[in-house]
Amino acid sequence: MKYQYVAINDKNRKYKSEIMANSMEEAKNLIEQRGMRVQTITEVEISEDEVPIWQRDIGGTKDVHDIKLKDKKMLAFMHQMALMIKSGISLSVAMEVLCDAEKDKNMLRILQEITQNLYNGITLSQAIGAFKTFPTVYVNIIQTGEANGRLDEAFEKCVNLLKKEMTLRGKLVSAMVYPIFLIVLVIAMIIVMSIVVLPAFKDLFESFDSELPVMTQMVMGLSDFLVAYGWVVVIVVIALVFVLRTLYARSYNFCMWWSTTMLKIPIIGEVLRLNQISRFANMMATLTDSGVNILSSLELSRDVVSNKFVADCLNQVIEDVKIGTPMNVSMGRYPIAFDAMFVSMIRVGEESGMLGDSLRKMADMYEEQANDATNRMTDAMTPAMTMIIAGVVGFFVIAIVQAMFGMYDVIG
């Protein structure tokens, strides 16, 4: 539904606009989240013709504040803002330039909304903070840049941080894709051999009415099972994945067990842990250098950590820091997540008052270690999986050849 409203911002300036929401209460909450007080709000009729195609979805119109942009689009926006503000272009003019040049319809809607909010006296950090596509960490960095008058530097920090995030996330995905691909390849080979290749020999073997070797009986039994009950296997696998995902989302104990187990897997666990620490350290370094206080930096940095066990450890660190415990002392209690080198460097940074520098050096060091660990994992898995694939194919071939030799004995 569409609502038309009149609201007052913190500078007592009136702001008249429209908003999409499921109810009037939700519309009021969304307006208040933008830092404004609602004076009047009324529901207005909306026709299908009014709604552009890019705004339509299964559930109706999509609020511009709920739109999610791709990282590359976010990166381009922040990079352009940094360049224009550094060149002395005013914020309002910079936004108008971006609106004129933007071709992406979703991004244009967001830019137009931000520009309108700026003209109504809302700060840039408040304006972008109303959109889900802008993570809180970037809003905080921009807010700090507004406070110290260095908005260009704030956007540059956002650019560097987002680039690092995209790089680390990409490397982590690449590290996981390769072993998963090899495992799927092995499973696919077994299925193809069992369903396509072996049935072609089954009638031939049975026509000679000779006793098949044990190995051949095994692969034929597997072939018969997959042909007859393959659909059951698929259903069981899907159900198992659903149950595991549900347990991971709803059971704290299972979530912690799974997350800890992932970190303990040889080689793979080390790659995951190093990537998590590198992302955390890089985020902390950027936030502390931007003037964000330690507690807020820890909370925002925790949100970029995908492993639930490491995130839970950081929750405990945050609680310890709140009561005055040094960060390095608290982190030292969780050796599975934070190794001795990381804790020592945090201690050096805290004691020297140069925590940002220590974190940045650690982020670079652990990123390099993560790359080395990824390469080691790839180097180790390539020959191992090659041997497994060769073993699977060899097992099926030997089973068929043994049966064929048995046929020749019967003929002879």
Defining key terms:
412 residues; three-stranded antiparallel beta sheet; 15 helices; 5 strands
Give an overview in words:
By secondary structure, the chain is mostly helical. Helices cover 73% and strands 6% of the residues. The chain contains 15 helices and five strands. The protein has helices spanning 24-33, 71-86, 91-101, 105-119, 124-129, 136-148, 151-207, 214-250, 252-264, 268-289, 294-302, 308-322, 327-331, 340-352, 355-411, and strands at residues 2-8, 14-20, 37-44, 56-57, 60-61. It has a three-stranded antiparallel β-sheet, covered by helices on one side.
Beginning-to-end CA distance, first to last residue = 84 Å
Question: Can you summarize the main beta sheet?
Answer: 3 strands, antiparallel
- Which structural class do you get from the secondary structure elements? mainly alpha
Question: What is the number of strand segments?
Answer: 5
Number of helices: 15
- β-strand percent reads 5-15%
How are strands sequenced across the largest beta sheet?
A: 2-1-3
Overall geometric form: globular
Q: What series of H and E elements makes up the topology? A: EEHEEEHHHHHHHHHHHHHH
